[in-house]
User: What shape does this take?
Amino acid sequence: MNSPLTDLFQKYLANECTPEETETLFRHFNIPENEQLLHDLILAELYNDNDLQDHGEEHQYLLKKAHSIIIDSISLSAKKEAAVKPLFSRRGFRSVAAAILFILAGGLLLLLYRSKPHSVPVVKNEKTIIDQIVPGADKAVLTLADGRSVVLDSMPDNGQLMQGNTRIIKQAGGQLSYTAGSHAKDTEIRYNVMSTPRGGQFRLVLPDGSKVWLNAASSIRFPTLFAGNERKVTITGEAYFEVKHDASNPFKVEANGTEVTVLGTHFNINAYPDEKSVRTTLMEGSVRVGRLSGHAQAATITPGEQAEFLREEAAPVRIHRDVDLEEVLGWKNNAFVFNNQDVESIMRQISRWYDVDVVYEKQGFTETFSGLISRKSNIEDVLKILKEGGLQFKLDKRKITVM
Assistant: This one.
C-alpha cells in the first residue's frame, strides 16, 4: 500500500501536513478511482491502532460500524443537495473526505476508545453540572399485580420473588426472568409492568422464554403466565423482542395504537409518544403489523423491512425496505448510530439516555447528521462531537439548550 498518497495520508494523521498538502490530499480522496485506496487505508488504520486492541464484543461492534459509516460517507460528497454533515466534521473542511480523515485523526478513536483522560468544557464553568449527568445504566421498576413496586437495580443479583406459582429472579447484567411452575395449580393470570426511567434500560425473560430488551423511558405490561390461545403484551417506548416459536399460540404486541402479530421472530418496535410514528423493524422471521382501530391496511413484512404508521389514524402503513438494521439496533448494542438523522431526533435519544431536558433557541434545523457514539460516553464527549458538527449548546442544570 506504499505510495505517495499513502505517505501523505500518514503525514496528515501525524498532523504534519502543510495546508497545501492537506488540500492535495482532500482533492485526491474526492476522485472516485481512489475510493478503494481510501477504503484500505481506513481499514488498516482502524484495525492497527494500538488503543483498539483487546477490547470486548461491544467495542468490536463499534469498530466495525465505525468503518461502515466512514466508507458509506464517501458517496455523500456527490449528493450536496442532501445537506448531510458527518457528526465528527470540522467547519472549514471542504468535503466529506476531509471529515473522514478527521475521524481517523482522533475524533472517533479518541471518543470511543480513549485511554487517557481529557477535558474539553462545553461551555465555561459547567464542569460540575456535566459531572452530574452520567450515561444510562441498568435501571427499572417492577410493578406487581397487587400494586407493590420493586426497584430492580436495588435488588441483589439472584434475588427472588414469587407470584402464585411463578418464580421471578433478578439476574446479573440487568435481566429479570419469569419461570412458571410445571404443575401449576394456581391458574390466576396476574399482570406485571416493568418500566425503565430516562437513563435506564433492562432485559426481561417472559414466562414462555421470549426475551425482551427495554430501551430508556419505556415499559412493558405482561402476564405472569400465558394462558389461552395467544400471548399478548403491551409496550410503550422502545423494545426489542426475540419471541420463542409457538405456532399454536401467536405472540402479539400492542404499542401506541398498533398491533404486531408473530409466531417466533426477532424485531424492534419504536413507539415513543414524542416520535411522529410507530416503527416496527424485522430482523428475523415474519410479522404482521396493523392498527388496533383497523382503519388502515395491515401489512406483513420480511427481514430487513420496516413498517411505519404515522400518528394520523387514517394514514396507510409505509413499508421501508433495506433498512439499516445496525442503526435501528444501535441502542441495544450500547451505541448511538445516526444515519442522516435530523437534530431533533438525535437530541430526543440523548434526552432519554442521559435524563436531560432539551429545548431549542430557535426552530427550523434542516441539516441531517451521520455518525457513531458509544452510549457509555459521558455527556461532555457527546456534546463535543455534536459541536464539531456545527451545533452549539447551553447547559443549565439538567437542561440543554440547542443554540
Observations:
- Residues 50-54, 73-127 have pLDDT under 50 and may be disordered.
- The chain has two domains: 1-133+334-403, 137-326.
- The longest helix spans residues 96-113.
- Residues 1-133+334-403 form a domain with the Phage tail protein beta-alpha-beta fold fold (CATH 3.55.50.30).
